[in-house]
Amino acid sequence: MDPHNSVGAEYIIEEKAEGVPLGNLWFQWSKESQLSLVTELVNLETKLASVSFNKHGCIYYKTDLENIGVPTMDIDATFLVSGKTLNCPIISKLAFGPLTQAVLWEGERAKMTLDRGPCM
């Protein structure tokens, strides 16, 4: 949320992953290999979809929100992964802030009197 950067907006720098696009290889694979990959993806999506969240909102740097006076909700930096408790200190620098999706502010929703985030 730093409007003083050269872009003038938030941004993410991404890199292109090395390798060959799957679409270039897909039809060279056996049906068994295709099925195996699809099964692995479905299993991964099932695990991701089973995660429940007790808070929602957009993720911001806590200091960015504090600097403009927006209330925040801290993110728990402790995670349970494969039965082990992990602490992720970088997360303490982040916070949930307001939802910014335009669809939440349009049409009939624009007339609703409610707190659009951060929410529990």
Give a structural overview.
The chain has 120 residues and is an alpha+beta fold. The protein has two domains: 15-51; 53-120, no CATH class. It has three helices and five strands. It has a three-stranded antiparallel sheet with strand order 1-5-2. It has a two-stranded antiparallel ribbon with strand order 3-4. It is extended. The model has no long low-confidence stretch (mean pLDDT 77).
Question: Mind sketching the topology for me?
Answer:
Blueprint: H1 22-25, H2 31-49, E1 58-61, H3 62-67, E2 73-74, E3 78-81, E4 84-87, E5 94-97
Antiparallel strand pairs: 1-5, 2-5, 3-4
Low-confidence stretches: none
The figure for the number of domains is 2
State the order of secondary-structure elements, H for helix, E for strand. Answer: HHEHEEEE
By secondary-structure content and strand pairing, the structural class works out as alpha+beta
Instruction: Give the number of helices.
Output: 3
For the secondary structure, the number of strands is 5
What fraction, in percent, of the residue positions are helical? 10-25%
Largest sheet: 3 strands, antiparallel
Distance between the termini: 23 Å
What number is the mean pLDDT?
Answer: 77
For the CA atoms, what is the radius of gyration?
A: 20 Å
Strand order of the largest sheet: 1-5-2
Strand content: 15-25%
Overall 3D geometry? extended
